[in-house]
Amino acid sequence: MFVRIDGVAHHVDVTGQGPVCVLSAGLGLAWFEWDPVVELLAPARTVVRFDRPGLGRSGPAREAPTLAGEAERVARVLAAVGLGERAVTVVGHSLAGFHAEAFARRYPERVAGLVLVDSSVEERTRALPARGARVAGARACGAVLGAAGVPRAVGPLLRGGGVPRRLRAVYGVSRVWRAGLVEYVTYGDVAHELALLRRVAALPGAPVAVLAAGPAGASRWVSRQRALADTLGASFRALRPAGHLLMRDRPHEVAEAILTAGPRPSG
């Protein structure tokens, strides 16, 4: 289905029944990356997933992303599909881990659980200059690459795996590359916004879980994820070996974490 938020058509998928969880994928990624997890959750959860503006099947973005805007987007998507009054388990992967944590801090009464799936981590952030120029440059770069046919030629190959037709229809589209590039150049701004939000808004008392992907042995990345869990007072689990797309590499463990973090279905 599609819902309009601030004039932009947002692609939203709602599947299953029971307590609500909302899933948001990482930088430049689409709703279908969650497919293996949704299959496991749907018998016991109402699963909501959506594409941010410019990504997946959603319409082009009108504005560059901000942390506050992305947290509000989660709330408005839920309201648009008639779930605005329900407490939800909010799940964020990679960059969307920032968005999920911000939603939990800004709307604590709406949160039944928080799950961060190999979330982005930035221990030191700062205000960055020339945001407007960075965004304009990213959009111009996306337009040039699109005109040259680069997205169609290499987009599906960079993603790898999956259904070729679906990959071409999403990751081979210039609109998606432009949106992904803008998310990339504003990543530092969003990370800094979260650092500031953490100073003034606490997490709710709901369960929090951090899942980390890593190689079979020790890694600096897993250590940083463990430190994030300690900072948030969260449970922690390293899934090894696994790649960054944990929802595809280890869907059973991701689904288990979501089910554990959220409420049990009544009856």
UniProtKB/TrEMBL annotation:
SUPFAM superfamilies noted in UniProt: alpha/beta-Hydrolases
The AB hydrolase-1 domain, residue ranges: 22-257
Q: Which GO terms describe its molecular function?
A: catalytic activity
What does UniProt give as GO cellular component? membrane
The record lists the organism as: Streptomyces spectabilis
The record ties this protein, via InterPro entries, to: AB_hydrolase_1, AB_hydrolase_fold, AB_hydrolase_sf
Q: What is this protein called?
A: Pimeloyl-ACP methyl ester carboxylesterase
Annotated PANTHER family: HYDROLASE, PUTATIVE (AFU_ORTHOLOGUE AFUA_2G14860)-RELATED, MONOACYLGLYCEROL LIPASE
